[in-house]
């Protein structure tokens, strides 16, 4: 690591943008390729991608759909039928799997990357775990058409902050990942939202690889993805978004709990550790001061 103009920079073969560190095996709940005996009924699964760099496109080996009922931050208004759920580092999904008619069979939860160039091409190929489906059993569960999803904030007309994610630096001094042209500096405050207000932010990936942008402090609604309404599974609350090269996502939230310093960063941890993080401070609402 070398210093350059106050910004962090790295040289060598593992300098950004080639700083991916990935393992060879994918454990699930601490075990490699585990299995779970299940009855031929419905199960609710909470999926969390806890890898520090890899993305997974999660589905079931027999093509059985996943019914997504929530994000990591709460329920969706309506269940969404998914063939695969793409989760980058820190992303979560709440899904229902129905094993009716699979009695006596083994079903593998796996990750299969999409075709090159398609969404999810960055996902890893892996057999994650196996469900060993036993006998039919009574299943009184049912899935309502409408779910008690959290209320979403009213979206402000204007964007109050744009965050651009990109590599920076040059050959002689090394490269680093940046937010708005800077590597992370704990002493630099890039934005000061006021407690109690709703802000609309724009997240922009100017680089030529996918990033997973994570915002601390609040739960956000996704307003636009590339100028259009987000897909149905992105219409709940989120705190981490996939941004493919060139993508722009707009999000909105109310700062309602705490003042103080918070982070926005890429949740691919090699990127974060190599500079792709910035600080914003939630400041007190002036109107509440005496
Ligand atoms: Cu990244």
At the fourth level of CATH, the homologous superfamily of the largest domain is Cupredoxins -  blue copper proteins
State the domain count: 2
Helix amount: under 10%
Query: What does the radius of gyration come to?
Result: 21 Å
Ligand list:
copper (II) ion
| CATH architecture descriptor of the largest domain | Sandwich
Number of strands: 24
Q: State the order of secondary-structure elements, H for helix, E for strand.
A: EEEEEEEEEEEEEEEEEEEEEEEHE
Structural class: mainly beta
* CATH fold assignment of the largest domain: Immunoglobulin-like
What report would you give on this structure?
There is one protein chain. The chain is mostly beta strands and 290 residues long. The chain has two domains: 33-133, Cupredoxins -  blue copper proteins (Immunoglobulin-like, Sandwich); 161-288, Immunoglobulin-like. It is 2% helix and 44% strand. It is built from one helix and 24 strands. It has one helix at residues 269-273, and strands at 2-4, 7-9, 27-28, 31-32, 35-38, 42-48, 55-60, 66-71, 74-82, 85-87, 92-98, 106-111, 123-124, 126-133, 161-170, 174-179, 198-205, 211-215, 220-225, 237-238, 240-243, 248-254, 260-266, 277-282. Strands 5, 7, 10, 12, 13 and 14 form a six-stranded mixed sheet that branches. A hairpin with a 2-residue loop joins strand 8 (66-71) and strand 9 (74-82). The longest helix has 5 residues, at 269-273. The chain starts with a strand and ends in an 8-residue tail after the last strand. The model is unreliable at 1-6 (pLDDT under 50). Copper (II) ion binds at residues 211, 266, 268, 271, 276.
